[in-house]
Amino acid sequence: MRRLALIGGEDLTERLRLSRDHQRALATLRDGIESMAPALELGYRIGAKANDVILLRAAIMGMPPDAGWQADIAKGQAAQFPVKPADLMPDVTGAALGAKLKKLEARWIASGMTLGKAELLS
């Protein structure tokens, strides 16, 4: 899958008749390569596949990954967003609830996943 992600091509999944699981894996790798999310965030969002993304980025750029990237991925994989929808309800509901959670999650990730629930909700 790493090689396919590196090769690219728009109709690659149809020409090769990839299974849905392989299509999703390929899309995850490609999206990760295109995003400039740090290793910590990739670990949180896509788990172990973040290792492949970081290695592919390094191959494309022709330089080694940043020091500590594996530790960052492991930290991201283990992290749990401290705020739950119930923490914001009933004050915030519907689409506003989703938007607020997304905003808080972005703030939490930007902090290096160090902010706690109380700090995020204040």
Distance between the termini: 43 Å
Alpha-carbon Rg, integer: 17 Å
Q: Level of helix content?
A: 55-70%
Please, how many helices?
9
Mean of residue pLDDT values = 91
Strand content: under 5%
Shape: globular
Strand-pairing-aware structural class: mainly alpha
- Report the uncertain regions: none
The main sheet comes to: none
Tell me the domain tally. Answer: 2
List how many beta strands DSSP finds. 0
Structure characterization notes:
- It is a single chain.
- With 122 residues, the protein is mainly alpha-helical.
- It has two domains: 2-78, no CATH class; 85-121, no CATH class.
- Helix 3 packs across helix 5 (49-61) and helix 4 (39-46) runs antiparallel to helix 5.
- The protein has helices spanning 2-7, 12-15, 20-34, 39-46, 49-61, 69-78, 85-88, 94-110, 117-121.
- The model has no long low-confidence stretch (mean pLDDT 91).
- The protein is built from nine helices and no strands.
Topology:
Layout: H1 2-7, H2 12-15, H3 20-34, H4 39-46, H5 49-61, H6 69-78, H7 85-88, H8 94-110, H9 117-121
Which features does this protein show?
122 residues; globular; single chain; mainly alpha; 2 domains
Quick take:
By secondary structure, the protein is an all-alpha fold. It has helices spanning 2-7, 12-15, 20-34, 39-46, 49-61, 69-78, 85-88, 94-110, 117-121.
